[in-house]
Amino acid sequence: MVSNTQDIRIENYDYALPDERIAKFPLSQRDSSKLLVYKNGHIEQCQFSDLPALLPDDVMLVFNNTRVIQARMHFRKATGAVIEVFCLEPLVPVDYAMSLQSTHSCRWLCLIGNAKKWKEGALYLTFMYDGREVTLSATRGEQYGDGFVVEFAWDDHSITFGELLETLGELPIPPYLNRATEESDKTTYQTVYSKIEGSVAAPTAGLHFTPEVLDVVRAKGIPTHELTLHVGAGTFKPVKSDTIAQHEMHTEYISVSRALIEELCRSPRRVVAVGTTSVRTLESLYYIALSLYRNKEASAEELRVEQWAPYGDNPNLSRAEAMQLLLDYLDRIGSDRLVSATRIIIAPGYKFHIVDGIVTNFHQPRSTLLLLVSAFVAGDWGTIYDYALSHDFRFLSYGDSSLLWRVDK
Known about the structure:
It is built from 11 helices and 17 strands. It is an alpha/beta fold. It folds into 2 domains: 2-67 and 187-405, QueA-like, CATH 3.40.1780; 71-170, no CATH class. Helix 7 (258-266) packs antiparallel against helix 9 (319-333).
């Protein structure tokens, strides 16, 4: 199975996406967007506000509550050269919350725009905060892949790094929008339920939800649960190799409460994941459980999910059995929250263990997200995307959405 999946040619997951079909801005009313519903090969066109009525009574909804940070900063050298520093993930402290609460210094892995103009030395940015002058410095360190270690330090220790980003930073909207960030994006590029800061891209399927839609869902008796996956810039990274064997998945950090794991363990309800990030987190839970099945004393580091873990010779655990292993682990470490990391790639050949339905947007050609959709609908992605293109659906982050039900073959 590993070799079959790794041999997938990305050219078979390409399609023509005209620029005019990419939604550059969101609709004024989030839940007025179109909703494509796919089940057992049948397609129906609805409006997103219809979603509560379309959900069966026996499901639960799971959302990613991550919040996008204003991760892009611009420094100007004495020569006049502008250097863009785009914070990807924290290194010291490695915990997102702790790093954003740092009050004197921290280190992040960053992308650097115009890096050839910044060979050495610190960059400085002086600004006013609450009537006080504050100076932030950035010092470039070693390179890791496309990114660089950058150490930030500032001279007012009453200010957190998160507050610095809120003051100086720019919200990093997707590059394929080909436009500058606007003030409105600070609201429209966040889900209405976003809470935990750390993402550099929004879990965009959730952008369609309004408080009114959520109220109707809950009034229908459908439980809603939250998890956290901080979305990295790697979500925009296209597959450039001929086959996916050479594509390196980015690491994403996940946090799941004991309460949700208990619900997944005890409840017979089917799981509808809002967004591919929720799918990746939920399915990663199964492979974390498999590591514990093989070694109940496994350390946190050993529980990280590697890219090809799903495609080996794995035992078949039920959802309840897998979740019980996670609960036993939380008991062992004395925690009410599972924190880990995943590089899981979900592509045709993958067997889903947790997720039964997905609410998701329409994704870029030749992307790992399109591979995920294809795996979920047993290869029928072309039918879905042909319909969306021929019925004037809007694509990508600010575009329309779909409700897909899993096809098992």
